[in-house]
Amino acid sequence: MQKKSKNRPLRIVHLTASLKVGGAETLLVNLVDDLRSYQFEQSVICFHDGFNADAIKELGVSVYNVKGFLFRYDLLFFIRLFLLLRKLSPDCIHSLLWVANFAGRLIAHMLKIPIVCALHNNSGINGKIRVLLDRCITKKTDLFIAVSDEVKSSAAKYVPVINDTAVKVITNGIDTGRCHRLAMRLRKNRADLNLSKDHFVIGSVGRLVELKNYSLFVDQIKDIILRFSHVRFVLVGTGPQEQFLRQKIKEIGLQDYAVIISNQVAMPYYLLFDCFVLPSYKEGISIALLEAMSFGLPCIVGNHGREHPVIKSGENGIVVTPNDNFGEALIPLIENEDIRITLSLAAKKTLHSHFYFNNMVKSYAELFGSVSNRI
Q1: Could you tell me the residue range of the domain that residue 81 belongs to?
Q2: Do 115 and 245 share a structural domain?
Q3: 22 CB contacts (<8 Å, ≥6 apart)?
Q4: For residues 224 and 220, what is the distance between their CA atoms, to the nearest angstrom?
């Protein structure tokens, strides 16, 4: 490794499994952007190239794509990642998403580079094999970042060798100014989607994967959509379940009431929604949810229990558990404008009080500095 000079800027490598569309990926782009004000030397390594890679390159930050030869994560992949990290010689590695956390820890240990692993989701969704692998290499991690207290508790439950002091909670945040400027620059009209001002639009933004529960949501809101003729559902996102969901909507007769927008830039669509729904029962702190709250949308979220890391049911949104029905939860919002206004105002207040983006960036910067000083 190159000899490190105390006079040069701190060198950070962000290691991520993906730069495709997703909340963690969006957060990384914005984090890299704002960390430039701290005069860090940054670079990004990804295993799956995608939409967000171009956004990072536009910031003047180098992006490297590492993959194997026969398989994406074969032996050659690990060799290439090892050689690249040795060449970049960072003072600290910041990894996010499971594969990057796993591979990063192994190689950081070999190269004696401090690593900070970000946990964006509850560990229970990783599956038994990944949890077992995590338990085997957890001690090779300098520090974990959990995006909520719930994620921290989940990590301790599924990987009990994690010491409580080794996990620091830094809640996700969003730059509302950046969100709103982008939304206005790319503004859409309801007419673009065959919607009128009289329609009540239920909106959602997310990756179209099984974990997000969109199939269940469509089933549960069918009767509500047909009961209220002015209700429409707009889902913005891409993913492996896109064709399945399109076919399901058609089969149950909702093709005139529900539309899927396959778009990688979701921001302008929030302006078309009357409320926002996040049907997944397993989330860390969803960036899409925070974005929706910044636009003053009353939000309905899924969760295994009433204690949600962002939404307090009945106060700043509505929480739906597996024993509840999303369709029934929507009725008060559809019928009562006063409820929508109350939840909207409370959502904005919560966002500005607890999920301020600048605080998040400052916490990351301080953490990278403190971990790097261990060298």
Answers
A1: 11-173+356-372
A2: no
A3: 207
A4: 8
Q: Is 26 helix (H, G, I), strand (E, B) or coil?
A: helix
| 1 within some domain | no
Q: Which residue has the tokens 């397993």?
A: 282
The CB-side HSE value for 330 (13 A sphere, CA atoms) comes to 27
Structure confidence by residue, pLDDT tens digits, 175-226:
999 999 999 999 999 999 999 999 999 999 999 999 999 999 999 999 999 8
CA 370/CA 375 separation, integer angstroms: 10
pTM listed for this prediction: 0.87
CB atoms within 10 A of CB 250: 11
Instruction: Give how many domains the chain has, as a whole number.
Output: 2
Take residue 310 and report the two structure tokens written for it.
């962002």
Alpha helix stretches (DSSP H) within the chain: 23-35, 51-57, 75-88, 98-111, 128-137, 149-158, 176-185, 214-227, 242-251, 287-294, 326-335, 337-354, 357-372
